[in-house]
Design goal:
There is one protein chain. With 413 residues, the protein is mainly alpha-helical. It has three domains: 88 residues; 96 residues, DNA polymerase, domain 1, CATH 1.10.150; 185 residues, Orthogonal Bundle (hpI Integrase, Chain A), CATH 1.10.443.10. Helices cover 51% and strands 3% of the residues. The protein contains 17 helices and three strands. It has a three-stranded antiparallel beta sheet, with no helix packed on it. Strand 1 and strand 2 form a beta hairpin. Helix 3 packs antiparallel against helix 4 and helix 10 packs parallel to helix 14. This is Site-specific integrase. Belongs to the 'phage' integrase family. Pfam families: Phage_integrase (PF00589). Keywords: DNA recombination, DNA-binding.
Length: 413
């Protein structure tokens, strides 16, 4: 649906749309100044219309930018110029401004889609999607809804296969894993609309499928020495250190997910049977973990000598007032980053060594010790062994180099 407009008219429409979308005044000033330069450049090249080629030539000549910004990562200092050029291309192609950031808090649903969006959220909650999964799913969906709103679609039944195709074109620059997630979200929502009679046609069948095979990346793992150095760097004479030490042990030795650690309640600790019983947020399965000796002493030390007095039912809470649970978006990455730096461990470029990597390390260790994949799946809380089979890609020699003995991950408090 590309519409050829003279470049000055195209810029005027884009700026008008940015104002309608309530972009900040400073942002609008930046767009105006930038587009004046683009218009001047176009006239110097005897070009009346904007094109992707003209945009690339402008970036190359004025910013020495030669990357294919649809296929490669954008250079750090060139994100704004590239974004502004892409806005022109998007508007010329689709008649809307896309790829804009949707603010997480306080998102206002377009009134013509509010009822079905609210009903969809209720269905997701009834299906017991995790809070994090639901939040991510809805966030992806808002981009599509905004796209429809900008194209003046007033009813879900007015959505066409051409609109879906046009929208899919806007996401092809994403990583293939992100594309797969976006397409899945779109497909599920459109199926919901059809089954609930918001649309007369099952448009989910019009959403394209990826033909690429998915090869999961090889997980990042720690070696024994680095785990010991990281744990030894924790000041266990400090209340915050006592808490962080207990958290890291639960991840490293039991493979508990960060979300489950955040939601762990005092009532989940059964000291008589020396077990921790939780309902996993992701899988909804009831899982029982043993309170190993070192974990038990670390928890006791934290609960008796460090945990602030609070009515919160959660085991781990903030160490500064208000003494409440961690925020819903907290991933506790700052904890492991803090002690990685204190211990002087250098993380190579491209390697992740966050909380999840400690789960990877536990899985690789158990695999090296001959533990069957179904057992490892149960320990890590995977839906099935397929998720766990990724650890086979590290190879036996690699496992020998990175494996740690779970009994040596930490020392008794």
């Amino acid at each position: 649906m590309e519409t050829r407009l003279p470049i000055e008219e195209l810029v005027a429409k884009v700026l008008s749309e940015l104002e309608r979308l309530k972009y900040a005044d400073n942002t609008l000033c930046g767009f105006r100044a930038f587009y004046r330069r683009v218009i001047t450049f176009a006239y110097e090249k005897d070009k009346l219309y904007f094109s992707e080629e003209l945009g690339r030539d402008f970036l190359k000549e004025k910013y020495n930018c030669t990357v294919n910004y649809y296929m490669e990562a954008m250079p750090k200092g060139l994100k704004d110029p590239i974004r502004r050029i892409r806005v022109l291309g998007d508007y010329q192609l689709h008649g809307v401004i896309i790829r804009r950031i949707v603010k997480k808090p306080g998102y206002v649903k377009p009134p013509q889609f509010e009822k079905e969006l609210t009903d969809y959220e209720k269905e997701c909650k009834n299906n017991e999607y995790s809070k994090r999964g639901l939040r991510t799913r809805i966030q992806r969906l808002f981009f599509f809804i905004d796209y429809l709103d900008c194209r003046s679609v007033q009813n879900s039944n007015d959505i066409t296969s051409e609109m879906i195709s046009d929208y899919v074109k806007t996401i092809y620059a994403h990583h293939e894993k992100s594309i797969a997630s976006i397409l899945t979200t779109l497909r599920v929502y459109l199926r919901f609309l059809y089954f609930n009679e918001y649309t007369n046609e099952d448009l989910s069948l019009k959403v394209p499928k990826q033909s690429k095979y998915y090869y999961p990346p090889v997980p990042s793992v720690w070696n024994k020495e680095d785990v010991m150095r990281m744990l030894d760097s924790i000041d266990r004479g400090n209340p915050t250190g006592k808490r962080d030490y207990a958290i890291l042990l639960l991840v490293a030795k039991l493979g508990i997910r960060v979300g489950d650690i955040k939601s762990l309640e005092l009532s989940n600790l059964n000291w008589q049977s020396k077990t921790i019983e939780i309902r996993q947020d992701k899988t909804k399965n009831i899982v029982t973990y043993p309170i190993l000796k070192d974990i038990g002493w670390a928890l006791i030390d934290y609960l008796k000598n460090a945990r602030p007095i609070s009515h919160a039912p959660f085991v781990f809470i903030r160490m500064n007032a208000p003494y409440e649970a961690f925020g819903k978006d907290a991933n506790l990455h700052n904890i492991i980053t803090k002690y990685t730096r204190l211990s002087g461990i250098t993380v190579p470029d491209g390697k992740r060594q966050g909380m999840h990597s400690l789960r990877h390390t536990l899985a690789s260790t158990l695999l090296e010790q001959g533990t069957p994949l179904p057992v490892i799946s149960e320990i890590l809380g995977h839906f099935n062994s397929k998720s766990t089979s990724v650890y086979l890609h590290t190879g036996m020699e690699g496992l020998r180099r990175c494996a740690i003995d779970p009994d040596e991950v930490s020392r008794d408090v």
